[in-house]
Amino acid sequence: MTEIRLASLQGGAITLESDAIAALRQTLRGNVCLPEEPGYDEARTIWNAMIDRHPGAVVRCRGTADIIRAVRLAREHGLLVAVRGGGHNIAGNAVCDGGLLIDLSLMRSVRVDPFHRTARVDPGATLGDFDREAQAFGLATPLGINSTTGVAGLTLGGGFGWLSRKFGLAVDNLISADVVTAEGELVRANIAEKTDLFWALRGGGANFGVVSSFEFRLHPVGPMVLAGLIVHPFARAKELLAGYRDVVAKAPDELTVWVVLRQAPPLPFLPAEVHGKEIVAFAVCCAGDENEGKRALEPLRALGEPIADVIGMQPFAAWQTAFDPLLAPGAYNYWKSHNFVELNDGLLDTLVSHTTSLPTGECEIFIGQLGGATSRVAVDATAFPHRDAKFVMNVHTRWRDPADEQRSVAWARRLFAETAPHATGGIYVNFMPEDETDRVAGAYGPNYARLAALKAKYDPSNLFRLNQNVRPAAAQRPAA
Q1: Cα-based torsion angle of the residue sequence 225, 226, 231, 236 in order, rounded to the nearest 10 degrees
Q2: Contact (Cβ atoms closer than 8 angstroms) between residue 233 and residue 308
């Protein structure tokens, strides 16, 4: 009889007889994949090529019952377990070495109720899946900016995008969630049931269970929105960034403007002589009336002399895919991030200085604009605490040649260190790489103690530990 060895929670290995896996297979709508079997490599391969892990077995779930059976197997045998949704998380926690991978990527249903303006979303659905369904009815909810991002991971970390200044974070629009707990039980969490768990899910990451279904509130958006890019030469970067700072301080909630500092990709609307040269790009989305949006954009459009201004009415679903070519799977990626209340002159000087030394042509610094509705929620209303953040910086290094790794990571870390004096000290958990476990407590700030207590209630053995992990409160107490 063949034996299968899987990594355990204790650091060793657990031996399962092959008939245990065969019995599991008989109960699933999905399937079990062992190394070298069909589907195994597809399940373990995720967006960030830096992550190359080999689980001992994969359960490819087709429904909630499959999730329950996989969690119970992991719990019964004390297996190291990872949970994959869209597989887009920078830290790569979606995959483990040697343990059990619970793969949700085949569960991609999105069910829109246009009459009540809600949507039920499976945990493997991507933003693209969501947008295609919701935009058929001219509806949307605040999610990210890349259509291949998974809805589940983005939401559990807080979730922000082009609509957040108008409608809040993804977690501010979460109505309920169906959750498979560490006990292998299915519960529903909302404002009336399991309210403490519902609080924790809204920003507390994947620490508290496997969400098998999300229910979102939807808003009228599109299907056409005013969106696009304004691209400037880099020579006047400091002046442009200072002007941007003044413009967005007065911007209405409907208008969101992000900054991208990078080398110009070969976009068709950019002159060939600009390709590969440093640029300042303003990425714009207006979730409101077209004419009001154009008026709100006038001060931004008055800055400098742009190389290109390609802002116009376009489908919101198309704008959500605009950055996909720059974020396609398969490259090596490493991120560093800070939150800021303001963009002061010292910070702008540092950003400009480091943009002139980008380690590869795919590296970039982006500044996401928040504020608006995201800042009108109390710090303790959800697990996500960073309601003071007006801007989020992501230092995004990206390379294809493994030889570029060391200098790319070193560049990101230098920029991170030099911008730290201007930052709040907080961080968006979805932007944390795998080497930042020391920042988890800071990521949750005043909400961390409550999260640790809820972790002890819902997952006292820390079964769900492959995440930006909040350890159960009891495990943090010193021994007597």
Answers
A1: -130
A2: no
Per-residue pLDDT of the chain (480 residues; tens, 9 = 90+): 478 999 999 989 999 888 888 889 999 999 999 999 999 999 999 999 999 999 999 999 999 999 999 999 999 999 999 999 999 999 999 999 999 999 999 999 999 999 999 999 999 999 999 999 999 999 999 999 999 999 999 999 999 999 999 999 999 999 999 999 999 999 999 999 999 999 999 999 999 999 999 999 999 999 999 999 999 999 999 999 999 999 999 999 999 999 999 999 999 999 999 999 999 999 999 999 999 999 999 999 999 999 999 999 999 999 999 999 888 999 999 999 999 999 999 999 999 999 999 999 999 999 999 999 999 999 999 999 999 999 999 999 999 999 999 999 999 999 999 999 999 999 999 999 999 999 999 999 999 999 999 999 999 999 999 999 999 997 544 433
Q: Would residue 149 be called left, alpha or beta, if left means φ above 0 and alpha means ψ between -120 and 50 degrees?
A: beta
* CATH number of this structure's domain 224-431: 3.40.462.20
pTM over 0.85: yes
Tell me which architecture the domain covering 110-220 has in CATH.
2-Layer Sandwich (3.30)
> Can you spell out the DSSP letters for 159-174?
---TTHHHH--TGGGE
| CATH architecture of the domain formed by 4-103 | 2-Layer Sandwich (3.30)
Amino acid at residue number 206:
A
Helix (H, G, I), strand (E, B) or coil at 154: helix
User: Domain spans of the chain?
Assistant: 4-103, 110-220, 224-431
Helix (H, G, I), strand (E, B) or coil at 336: strand
Amino acid at 188: R
Q: 479 exposed, middle or buried (CB, 10 Å; 0-12, 13-18, 19+)?
A: exposed
CA distance 225 to 219: 14
CA dist., res. 302 & res. 398, Å (int): 32
Contact predicate 231/247, CB 8 Å: no
**Vertex 450 angle, CA 449 and 455, to 5°:** 95
